[in-house]
């Protein structure tokens, strides 16, 4: 996007965001969805830890066997790290993740009585858990309004003109200011879907995108300009 070619008032931006959210609701619905398979809360936590720099599809393949072999938190806490590495070696960063799964299981048992905490500070104290993972857990398990900033959310939110920041925490704060709370969780879910199907990195299908009339990047890519001031 060329600087100076897209301007809008605060009111116009809120109106544009409202249109974007309405279109996302119409396209994808308003029911919260999770792309990772799990039965217990701690299994979702472990699946999200494994998903860093890895596709959800690969994680689901691995956890399909992993959660059968290690049925409880205690099984993970007592696991041999070398064996755990072999169990998840088709996932990127598997050595670090194997270590984190075991340490995380031990802390959950020793400090939180085997329960996944809802407090963000408690969550990020767990091995392998950062703010993104914590927000996934808060949103999916506890239904606490949370914005998860992954690569899709960061990239597409910028294309939509909702943030100019690169730091995930700053992007999260920008989105919390402009998006209504009832769409914080849905934003991540819908934008991931959009990013995997239409607004694909390096090969965006702007001509097919149902948001193209409200997307500054898409409009200007087609040689047009827009000014809502």
UniProtKB/TrEMBL annotation:
EC number: 4.2.99.18
Transmembrane segments: none
Domain of life of the organism encoding this protein: Bacteria
UniProt keyword annotations, A-Z: 4Fe-4S, DNA damage, DNA repair, DNA-binding, Endonuclease, Glycosidase, Hydrolase, Iron, Iron-sulfur, Lyase, Metal-binding, Nuclease
GO molecular function, one term: class I DNA-(apurinic or apyrimidinic site) endonuclease activity
Residues reported in the UniProt entry to bind [4Fe-4S] cluster: 199, 206, 209, 215
SMART domains: ENDO3c, FES
HhH-GPD domain sequence ranges: 50-197
Cofactors required: [4Fe-4S] cluster
A Pfam family assignment: HhH-GPD
Reactions it catalyzes: 2'-deoxyribonucleotide-(2'-deoxyribose 5'-phosphate)-2'-deoxyribonucleotide-DNA = a 3'-end 2'-deoxyribonucleotide-(2,3-dehydro-2,3-deoxyribose 5'-phosphate)-DNA + a 5'-end 5'-phospho-2'-deoxyribonucleoside-DNA + H(+)
EC class name: lyase
Cofactor, free-text remark: Binds 1 [4Fe-4S] cluster.
GO biological process: base-excision repair, AP site formation
PANTHER family: A/G-SPECIFIC ADENINE GLYCOSYLASE/ENDONUCLEASE III, ENDONUCLEASE III
UniProt-listed HAMAP family: Nth
Family, per entry: Belongs to the Nth/MutY family.
NCBIfam families (UniProt xref): nth
Task performed by this protein: DNA repair enzyme that has both DNA N-glycosylase activity and AP-lyase activity. The DNA N-glycosylase activity releases various damaged pyrimidines from DNA by cleaving the N-glycosidic bond, leaving an AP (apurinic/apyrimidinic) site. The AP-lyase activity cleaves the phosphodiester bond 3' to the AP site by a beta-elimination, leaving a 3'-terminal unsaturated sugar and a product with a terminal 5'-phosphate.
Protein name per the record: Endonuclease III
């Amino acid at each position: 996007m060329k600087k100076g070619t897209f301007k809008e008032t605060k009111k116009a931006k809120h109106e544009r965001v409202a249109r974007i959210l309405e279109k996302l609701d119409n396209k994808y619905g308003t029911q919260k969805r999770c792309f990772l398979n799990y039965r217990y809360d701690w299994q979702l936590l472990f699946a999200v830890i494994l998903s860093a720099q890895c596709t959800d599809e690969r994680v689901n393949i691995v956890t399909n066997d992993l959660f059968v072999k290690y049925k409880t938190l205690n099984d993970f806490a007592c696991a041999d790290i070398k064996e755990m590495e072999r169990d998840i070696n088709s996932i990127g960063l598997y050595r670090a993740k194997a270590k984190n799964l075991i340490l995380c299981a031990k802390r959950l048992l020793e400090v939180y009585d085997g329960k996944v905490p809802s407090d963000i500070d408690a969550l990020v104290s767990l091995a392998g858990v950062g703010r993104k993972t914590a927000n996934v857990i808060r949103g999916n398990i506890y239904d606490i309004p949370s914005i998860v900033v992954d690569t899709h959310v960061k990239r597409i939110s910028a294309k939509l003109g909702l943030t100019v920041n690169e730091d995930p925490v700053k992007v999260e704060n920008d989105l919390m200011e402009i998006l209504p709370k009832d769409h914080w969780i849905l934003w991540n879910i819908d934008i991931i879907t959009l990013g995997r199907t239409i607004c694909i990195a390096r090969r965006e299908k702007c001509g097919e995108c149902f948001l193209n009339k409200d997307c500054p990047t898409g409009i200007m890519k087609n040689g047009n300009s827009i000014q809502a001031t």
